Amino acid sequence: MKNYKEVVIVADHSKIADIQNVNVIVSDEEPPNEWSNSLNEYGIEWIKA
Question: What is the pTM (predicted TM-score) of this model?
Answer without folding.
Answer: 0.79
